[in-house]
């Protein structure tokens, strides 16, 4: 319960704040300090797809996040009941979401358990948060 903070060096220090889905009501209090957004979806749970989609749409429509790059992570690729990226894109109607969103949206498949996709996530973070020199 609460939020988890993790510092990464990409190469500059970046603080990642984890806010679980049940913490949705307090998410807006952190939008002002957000430089990039990682939105993690459990791709093994079809019953949560609609609520995850509603939460994503709410985040994308928040004014302070209008230009913040978004990475949607379809997680748990290591489990046999995992829905593919194609299935998840279809269920979320990601093509419609991307075409209407004001912010750039990227989608990746990941497994927090075995590290699948982690290198791609870090690459996205480095590219998105690089120092503007």
From TrEMBL:
The keyword Membrane does not apply. The keyword Hydrolase does not apply. GTP binds at residues 21, 75-78. Keywords: GTP-binding, Nucleotide-binding. InterPro entries: P-loop_NTPase (IPR027417), Small_GTPase_ARF/SAR (IPR006689). Pfam families: Arf. This is ARL16 protein. The gene is Arl16.
